[in-house]
Specification:
Elements (H helix, E strand, L loop, with lengths): L1 E3 H10 L4 H8 L4 H7 L13 E4 L6 E4 L3 H18 L1
């Protein structure tokens, strides 16, 4: 899947507090691995995630090999949106 780096960071910043920990817990990952997925560069503290950045507009295009973390983040955003409507 391809997504702009800007969009990937927008999704990360839109997540409610505690979402990185929740994603890590639910997917049995280290929290830093989840942060790395969203563009952090502290590889020594978490697994290196499989994505490739091509230079371009909006921070470039990120090719994600595995979208599991992104899908979980979008699920959390959808839940947060529903709960804020009620």
């Amino acid at each position: 899947m391809n997504i702009t780096f800007e969009e990937l960071r927008r999704i990360k910043h839109a997540l409610p507090t505690g979402s990185i920990a929740r994603i890590a817990h639910e997917l049995n990952l280290d929290e830093q691995t989840v942060r790395n997925y969203f563009g952090a560069h502290k590889y020594q503290e978490g697994q290196i995630v499989e994505w490739h950045l091509e230079p371009g507009p909006n921070g470039g295009i990120v090719h994600l090999e595995d979208t599991t973390i992104l899908e979980k983040a979008k699920q959390i955003l959808a839940e947060d949106h529903v709960s804020s409507e009620n």
